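Researcher: Please predict.
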Amino acid sequence: MKSMSKWKLSVGLALAGATFGVGAYTYEQLSMEEKLRIVPAAHVSGKLHLLPATMETTQWGWFDNAQTPVMTIMPGDTVALETMMHSHNQIVPGTTLETIKKLRIDNPGRGPHTLTGPIFVEGAEPGDVLKIHINKIMPRSYATNFNIPGMFGEFPKEFQDGQVKYFYLDMDKKVTEFAPGIEIPLHPFPGTIGVARAEPGKYSSVPPGPFGGNMDIRELTEGTTLYLPVFVKGALLWSGDSHAAQGNGEINLTALETAFKEMNITVDVIKGTKLDWPRIETSRNWITMGYDNDLNKAWDIAKAETGKYLGQQRGISPEKAVGLMQKVSDCRISEVVNIKKGVYCMNPKDAKSTITVDHPVAETNRYWVTTATDADLNKAMDQASMAMIGLLQEKKGLSRLDSYGLASMSMDCRLGDLSDDSKSVHCLMPKSLWVAKK
């Protein structure tokens, strides 16, 4: 019998700490394939499992509760997993835009993402919380960004033309060259990581939700920890849609899309807890979030989740805590292209801290800036994003499609004033991307 480690549970989850025993599998119960994937590793506390991305260990475009788990692990175990490029590795350097479009048209309903998993976590039950710490991420040497003409993205009507571009990821310098004189910093993270929904069936990998999934939160990088509500026995954990970098909004549909040679995670189970939506822990912040087809409603969910966190942290009511958000919470757009749009808020772990985030309304020494204000957050985001596309064409001489792509991979969209009748979005493009041509 292996018992879970004791947790000093943070107020970020507002959980009552307790130690629970978890029934362990025996080595003999594992398949021969699973036994061969457990390798010696003195540096980890549990077992270390290797999970290669193959046709047998991945699925394309679906979360499916009925899929047989490809691996069983214990709480505290570590998994070194691989991921594939989109559409079961069919979108790799050289794949044309026509082929990419055909892959979507010929496979209606399913998402483009290739998901590694599911991983069955022994002892995880509905009502628990799955804790996933990201130890290490190592991408492949290449990535892509594309927009499919007239079909997806924030502006499908405006962009009836499309393009695909491929990039070399220089992991020594942690940059990729977008074009001569323009370099994008690399910050790899899983665009999609989630557990099974409570409802049985097969669901597209595109929309995120309380189960996690296609959250596209670029702060979920190496060294951070994700907390997910558990809805089914074993949790059933998947990951894919691997990113080397992404802008807030992911506006042309894609980030800097890659695959991971290794995403190394340690998985644990927290018992006796309640969590309605995922949360992310970084070295300095707890991140709360919300998703909905309507960005205004996504903001309402994120606001409610943030109110819960701040209220628990400071010993005040959630309603009163919401009033503190303008001073202590840094809220941004995660994505607006995954059917369900997202807002996330970074909240300091230190209850005495306040934020020092700028919401500029004009160009600064560090950023090109566009802003928009509207009672409808969807419209404010659309206006600020389109203005940035226009600015990059006018100020930097980029083509329409390159402006769309660069914004999708690098733009930072922050929420400013968020009163009921006036919501402002501030989109920033770092000037540091422009470097001396070699």
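Model: The first strand starts at residue 2 and ends at 3.
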